[in-house]
């Protein structure tokens, strides 16, 4: 290539912060290219002598550049045309350039003979714009996925701008709405909601703080939605309100879920109350006929013992034993019903003193069996003391009742902090502190498969003839732990005793 041809001084081109080149239209090759091509693309100058465009234009952009070159034939003198394309780098990859060109020389018929181009590297700016566009697309996708949109209000012009997500929320296309005016916004709301929204905004501006407001809208398509708007005031240099920004999100599924949950809870509470009332009334009404059966059976036994004979006396004894079992069952049912309707107040209670009181009540059974009750250090916790006493009475009573025939019962009570794993296993909140109380005995134990079944009402693992009882005691224990927002579970191996674990929150509220 020769510098200085076509009225072009190539020496000046080397000072231009880009690549300058002259393109021969007829030969479809370069007549000249500045030395800066090596700086920008790493291509040796001598390799580009009389070369075609495919030597340095990125292959995927060749067709684009050829189409752009055809536009120069229609250019008038002193007019120019610009386009963007990629150029190949010697080390691989490409750089992005903004190319400005004009006709350098024409033929006798006026068509372009050679073209002068100046290409500036805009890779960094282009990548910045590409990143901004990618972020904008990501924001749009996020807004669509999470059903929300962003907005900003300019105080000086009283104009509002919405993001794509907000248009979608109201079911509009951006080009369909010329201006986001107050009238346009409020027409989608009821008068009461509109007044409430304006009140929140005014208070936020007056106090220079933020606001949060929930309200209903009717979309362009007539769909009813519940939305939540959260805004924040932006202050200027003079501490004046210059802007307000925020987000509006669709909370319709959440509100419908909450309404359905509230309805289910009301229905469940109603059903539970009816069941509790039925259990209480049924148990209470059974007491009177039961007393009569017991009384007349005692009179029958006292007055007609000789006439009844040994077989008749046996039948009467069985009636009295069944009556007593029925009385115990009814009493336990009443106790279970009372626990379900518990309204006792929580108080700070020393559990060691509570258990000592229980052992005093069980003193006769302890003496009869030779039981040992070993109580370790126990904390003070917020509990209903009467319910805790009932709980430990049932657990210690069971530990003594289900003892081995070969050895006297030994019951050990200890406590420790509940670990995170303990709370997770029992589905308790891990951010709350719990005390773990362990009650271990050396009794007959039970199969591990019954570890959950034993806490169900009327569930028995042994016959009444061996171990009398109603099968409600552990169900009451579970109900008490539920009332205390805690948990109870058991571990055991037949012949090696049982271990009951109680997880109690240190504080209830």
UniProtKB/TrEMBL annotation:
**What EC identifiers does the entry list?**
2.7.13.3
A single Gene Ontology MF term assigned here is: phosphorelay sensor kinase activity
SUPFAM superfamilies per UniProt:
ATPase domain of HSP90 chaperone/DNA topoisomerase II/histidine kinase, Homodimeric domain of signal transducing histidine kinase, PYP-like sensor domain (PAS domain)
Which stretches make up the PAC domain? 81-134, 211-263
Catalyzed reactions: ATP + protein L-histidine = ADP + protein N-phospho-L-histidine
Residues of the Histidine kinase domain:
281-508
Q: Which InterPro entries match?
A: HATPase_C_sf, HATPase_dom, His_kinase_dom, HisK_dim/P_dom, HisK_dim/P_sf, PAC, PAS, PAS-assoc_C
Q: This protein is called what?
A: histidine kinase
> What lineage is on file?
Bacteria, Pseudomonadati, Bacteroidota, Cytophagia, Cytophagales
């Amino acid at each position: 290539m020769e510098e200085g041809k076509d009225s072009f001084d190539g020496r000046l081109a080397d000072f231009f912060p880009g690549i300058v080149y002259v393109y021969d239209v007829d030969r479809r090759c370069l007549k000249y290219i500045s030395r800066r091509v090596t700086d920008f693309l790493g291509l040796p100058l001598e390799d580009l002598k009389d070369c075609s465009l495919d030597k340095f234009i990125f292959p995927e952009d060749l067709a684009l550049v050829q189409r752009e070159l055809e536009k120069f034939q229609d250019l008038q003198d002193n007019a120019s045309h610009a386009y963007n394309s990629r150029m190949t780098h010697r080390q691989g990859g490409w750089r992005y350039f903004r190319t400005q060109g004009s006709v350098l020389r024409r033929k006798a018929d006026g068509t372009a003979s050679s073209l002068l181009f100046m290409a500036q590297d805009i890779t960094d700016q282009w990548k910045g714009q590409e990143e901004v566009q990618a972020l904008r697309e990501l924001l749009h996708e996020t807004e669509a996925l999470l059903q929300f949109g962003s907005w900003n209000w300019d105080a000086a012009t009283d104009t509002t701008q919405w993001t794509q997500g907000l248009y979608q929320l109201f079911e509009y296309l951006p080009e369909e709405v010329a201006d986001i005016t107050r009238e346009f916004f409020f027409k989608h709301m009821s008068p009461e909601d509109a007044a409430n929204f304006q009140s929140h905004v005014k208070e936020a501006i007056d106090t220079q703080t933020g606001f949060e407001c929930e309200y209903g809208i009717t979309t362009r398509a007539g769909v009813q939605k519940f939305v939540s708007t959260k805004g924040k005031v932006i202050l200027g240099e003079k501490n004046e309100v210059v802007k307000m920004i925020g987000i509006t999100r669709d909370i319709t599924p959440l509100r419908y879920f909450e309404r359905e949950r509230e309805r289910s809870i009301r229905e469940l509470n109603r059903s539970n109350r009816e069941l509790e009332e039925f259990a209480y009334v049924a148990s209470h009404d059974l007491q009177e006929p039961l007393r009569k059966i017991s009384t007349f059976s005692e009179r029958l036994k006292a007055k007609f013992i000789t006439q009844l004979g040994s077989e008749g006396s046996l039948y009467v004894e069985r009636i009295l034993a069944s009556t007593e079992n029925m009385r115990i069952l009814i009493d336990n049912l009443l106790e279970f019903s009372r626990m379900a309707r518990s309204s006792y107040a929580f108080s700070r209670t020393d559990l060691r003193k509570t258990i000592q009181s229980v052992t005093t009540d069980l003193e006769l059974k302890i003496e009869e069996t030779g039981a040992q009750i070993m109580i370790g250090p126990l904390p003070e916790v917020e509990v209903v003391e009467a319910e805790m006493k009932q709980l430990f009475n049932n657990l210690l009573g069971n530990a003594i009742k289900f003892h081995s025939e070969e050895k006297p019962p030994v019951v050990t009570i200890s406590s420790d902090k509940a670990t995170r794993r303990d709370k997770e296993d029992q589905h308790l909140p891990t951010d709350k502190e719990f005390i773990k109380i362990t009650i271990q005995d050396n009794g007959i134990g039970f199969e591990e498969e019954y570890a959950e079944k034993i806490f169900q009402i009327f569930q028995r693992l042994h016959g009444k003839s061996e171990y009398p009882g109603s099968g409600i005691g552990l169900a009451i224990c579970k109900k008490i732990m539920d009332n205390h927002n805690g948990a109870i579970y058991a571990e055991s191996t037949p012949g090696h005793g049982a271990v009951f674990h109680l997880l109690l929150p240190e504080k209830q509220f």
